[in-house]
Hints:
The chain is α/β, with parallel strands linked by helices. It has 15 helices and ten strands.
Amino acid sequence: MSVLDQQLMIYLKTTDTCQLNCEHCFTNGINGKKGWFDPVATSEFFHKLHKVNPYYSNGNISFHGGEPMLCPIDKMFEIWNNCKHLWPDLFWSVQTNLTYNLTDDRLKVFNEICNKSFGTSWDSNIRWETDKQQQLWKDNVKLLVDDGHEITMMVCLSTDVIKNIEPITILNMAIDLGIAHINFERITNNGNAALNPKIIPLNIDLDKWFLKMWNQSVEHKTYKYINNIFFNSILTSFVYGTHSGCRCRQCEQKIFTINANGSIGGCPNGAVDRTFGTIWDDIIDLMTSEGRMCNISEEAQRPAVCYTCPVYSNCHGDCHQLEIQDNICPAPKSLMIKLQKENDIELYKKFLNGFIGKE
Ligand code: SF4
Ligand code: SF4
Ligand code: SF4
């Protein structure tokens, strides 16, 4: 039995650039660095990592970007074929904007590497410049869902979404499209978002929106139709005492983001600016590098407001990349207070649908 971590999450950026230019993009969208990852050198890195820890049994290797599917597909297959046997319990996936033509090559990636399970993103007014682009995304989602793909939709919680869109409208749209899992991503102050602070909503408005999403989801019994991963990350603490997703506070320990140029960081949102090594480094040197230790230490510390918080035991302090605004945190605090008070474990189990938070 290994004494090292069992959990590994690799975000492997096939490129740092994209054909879109979202205002919140943490790799700087269309202005991100051009070029592809090196499948040979990256494969050697995975083999070195495997020698140090062959026991990773939980987690995944996800192609990221920029837009990962812009990369020549043979490079993606090359690394997958060379490395898929290393940790057979880890699944391979992709996070893609799906705003392109679904060529046979690309379908092959979704079918064979992703085993028909992957993620795509959605937001309002910051991703697609034309209705035609948005329609292309929808058509692609429908086509893939009809072909049996299990899609996770990542919703970006911009100011526009929080101010102008009801949570149930988004949930119903996803359900109508046949999306299997939905998650809600808060914007961190990295890349393009740092240049466009107006797209980051106020924490107090986020808090109200999350509470509304819960109330509407209970009323419409959305758990019958779609798996809400954001709720899962809250509810596992009430039902199973586990802290999953953005509440784990262990991202910097289990995540390695490999930029397309071979530099390595932890959390993908900070991986462009806060690299701590490269794929050519000795693994132990990389693991114990000063930059990684700083990230881990920063993540271990909690903001001052957490120390007196009545729902700390459920929240665990939330994602360390998000900012406190005038002593108001970005977490769904009002919702957690309500859940704690009502303690309706049977209802929470319905939402969790068997998920216990030991990812
Ligand atoms: S957020 Fe994603 S889709 Fe948008 S510009 Fe960045 S990489 Fe492209
Ligand atoms: S640190 Fe925050 S933004 Fe980064 S992967 Fe974890 S939850 Fe996501
Ligand atoms: S709800 Fe806010 S204050 Fe409370 S533990 Fe979570 S992040 Fe900290």
